[in-house]
From TrEMBL:
This is Phosphonate ABC transporter ATP-binding protein. One of its GO terms (cellular component) is membrane. It comes from the Bacteria. Pfam families: ABC_tran.
Amino acid sequence: MLRIKDLVKRYGNDKPVLKNLNLEVPGESVVSIIGASGAGKSTLLRCINRLVEPSAGSITLNGMELTGLSSGQLRKARRRIGMIFQGFNLVDRLTVMENVQSGRLGYIPTWRAALRRYPQDDIDRAFHLMERVGIAHYANKRADELSGGERQRVGVVRALMQEPEILLADEPTASLDPKTSRQIMELLQALAAELRLPVLINIHNVTEAREFTQRIVGMRYGRIIFDGDPAALDNDA
Ligand code: ADP
Ligand code: ADP
């Protein structure tokens, strides 16, 4: 369960870009966050994954407070958070397996890190997850030999390798065609249920958000202006 309470974020001395946000996302539920550019969607994700320090308020993940941490605690906390990106953020010249294993490392590997030998347990786990998402037969292919949808599956498996307690996806379908987008959104839904993970998806495509998620959070000027069933969302929202 993710619990956000009275979250405020301001950059420098500017006006806050997040204004007393409150949000709860139970495990196994998927929330799409929509809103115009500048609404604060990325800032919200960056506060949760702690790329930025919130100015005020509280964020807890399964009871653990994510704000106000020391740098050591912060590193640990960030390992609990799986990230999925619009541009996939794979290392092209590395194999799928190497990219996937970097999830365990918690950082993007250099050649040397990638060449280290992985424990058999990690390899088994990677194959299990790759099979689940349908990319196991690509394990030894270079990441840049894969299609967009396949690359995003690699990104998903990499995030899951760190055994996260939440998945955050920043525009995960923005680089994909509609059919592939649908597959990735359905995969995220299924994984949320199977792994009992809360999943937050920043998405600019409102049609996709409505079609693929049961819960939409609409943001505007740093506030949540809608939180609920897509059917209740105004067409012009
Ligand atoms: P969205 O993801 O909804 O487009 P953002 O969270 O990126 O919104 O941006 C929200 C507001 O915060 C915008 O006005 C943006 O200019 C501002 N902002 C984002 N990042 C920074 C930053 N690093 N420094 C200063 N202002 C920022
Ligand atoms: P600009 O970048 O030109 O100042 P924005 O629309 O990005 O204009 O707004 C910047 C900030 O001003 C927003 O984060 C919001 O806090 C506030 N703001 C702008 N328009 C409105 C509005 N119609 N209602 C409430 N707040 C607004």
